[in-house]
Design goal:
Blueprint lengths: L7 E9 L11 H16 L5 H8 L11 E4 L8 H8 L5 E2 L4 E3 L2 E12 L8 H12 L1
Antiparallel strand pairs: 1-2, 1-5, 3-5, 4-5
Amino acid sequence: MGMTDKQFNSYVRFILSALKDMLQETDPERKAAKAQELLDQINNGDISFEDAAAQYSQDSGSAAQGGDVNWDKLGTGFVTEYQEALDGLEKDQIVAAPVKSEYGYHIIKCTDVFTVPEGGITSLGIMLEDLESALG
């Protein structure tokens, strides 16, 4: 079965804000406030998203790459709260507020979006051409 024009793939960066100094924090409101402080610093330009991920993210697989987790692969592998927040983002957009999940707080940035062309994907060549043009 082919993909439809409703489906898309997002290129994602994120920070898992189970921040190093949050690990001992037991107050849920304080944890949320610390995650919001980091998001505010990113939005104010005090720190880049990539530097914030490298310094503060507890996700060992993506922190060293500035939070880069690559293409979303059509919504596989992320917890529901994360996926719903990601689905609401456009290219180069960051979530308005940290997203809480069972793993901590996530600050999510969608760095690119690939939309399946009208008529769907009929060959791998079509997908590769569209991805190459999207990546410039």
